[in-house]
Design a protein that fits this description.
Layout (H helix, E strand, L loop, with lengths): L11 H17 L6 E5 L6 E3 L3 H6 L6 H4 L7 H13 L9 E3 L1 H8 L5 E5 L3 H11 L5 E4 L3 H7 L7 E6 L8 H16 L4 E8 L2 H13 L5 E8 L11 E7 L5 H15 L7 E9 L1
Parallel strand pairs: 1-4, 1-6, 4-5, 6-7
Antiparallel strand pairs: 2-3, 7-9, 8-9, 8-10
Helix pairs in contact: 1-4, 1-5, 1-10, 7-8
The chain binds S-adenosylmethionine.
Length: 283
């Protein structure tokens, strides 16, 4: 495996994914009862934006850095920006660190909530363990996140959110793995919210996955949100990305209706940007 998220930390895809994730986590906090946050592909938790990888690509400059100068933001983006700002000690002219999904989650989880974090690569998992040393709410596992999702669910807390955020090195084959993992997880833990991030290059790569969600997943409420910075007609670059949310919280689409246009405008790379928000199933 060659993938290293440090090259991409804080880019437009992270902004999209992490702001939606924060919205989902906030919606879980509407009830007092504990919930479990399950991150199947957790990464290293904290990214050094002054390190070699991030300075080589500077992808964060077209992502999180752009949001910092926007004055009026929907509430979920406001929360996100404030968390990033706080991690950088309020210093935002040039960011030094960026939080990955598990670190962001840890900043909003309550004392009664729990987290299960899986990361397969040894050095990434070691870094993740170091970030979470001393936080008893979280268990960090160096193991395959798909297999762990099957083995470790349902957790003691009945409510929960699963984030599935693979590197997609296997390209379209990754969707097949996701479908298998979702089918097994839904059978064991049907009420959890599942958020699956995916890259968009060619539209035809996504169509079979959406069809599976509609026709075969068995999930009754499936919301799909997408952000495109370029038309979805080239296999050679990341034109955009999407998130499907199974068992989407009540009225969550309203939050996305507010969020997506701001992301499209702020993160634009060309005049061909677009957003999509669609219920694949809503029963
Ligand atoms: C896109 S990154 C995750 C980023 C992280 N979710 C975030 O938002 O900050 C994907 C991560 O999955 C890890 N990975 C790849 N295959 C995996 C597997 N089968 N199980 C668990 N982790 C895996 C990679 O090493 C990489 O760190």
């Amino acid at each position: 495996m060659n993938y290293r998220h440090a090259f991409h930390a804080g880019n437009f895809a992270d902004v999209f994914k992490h702001s939606i994730l924060l919205g989902l986590l906030e919606s879980m906090k509407g009830k007092q009862g504990a919930f479990c946050y399950f991150d199947t592909h957790a990464g290293r938790g904290r990214y050094d934006l002054r390190g070699e990888e991030a300075t080589r690509t500077r992808e964060y400059a077209g992502g999180v850095q752009r949001l910092l100068s926007v004055t009026r933001l929907p509430s979920v983006l406001h929360v996100y920006v404030n968390l990033v700002r706080a991690l950088n000690n309020g210093q935002t002219n040039e960011l030094a660190v960026y939080p990955g999904s598990p670190l962001l989650a840890s900043l909003v989880l309550r004392a009664q909530d729990r987290g299960i974090l899986c990361e397969l690569q040894e050095d990434e998992a070691a870094a993740l363990k170091a970030v979470f040393r001393g936080d008893a709410r979280f268990a960090v596992h160096q193991r395959d996140g798909y297999e762990a999702l099957k083995a470790l669910t349902p957790p003691a807390q009945k409510r929960g959110i699963v984030l599935i955020d693979p590197p997609f090195e296997a390209q379209t084959a990754e969707f097949v793995q996701i479908e298998e993992a979702l089918a097994a997880a839904l059978a064991r833990w049907p009420k959890a919210v599942y958020a699956v991030w995916y890259p968009i290059k060619l539209r035809q790569h996504i169509v079979p996955f959406h069809r599976w969600l509609i026709e075969r997943s068995g999930a009754s409420r499936v919301l799909a949100a997408e952000l495109l910075l370029h038309p979805d007609n080239s296999a050679l670059r990341l034109n955009g990305c999407g998130m499907v949310i199974l068992n989407a919280p009540w009225k969550f689409e309203k939050q996305l209706e507010e969020l997506l246009p701001v992301l499209r405008e702020t993160l634009a790379q060309s005049r061909y940007g677009a957003q999509r928000l669609e219920w694949l199933r809503n029963e």
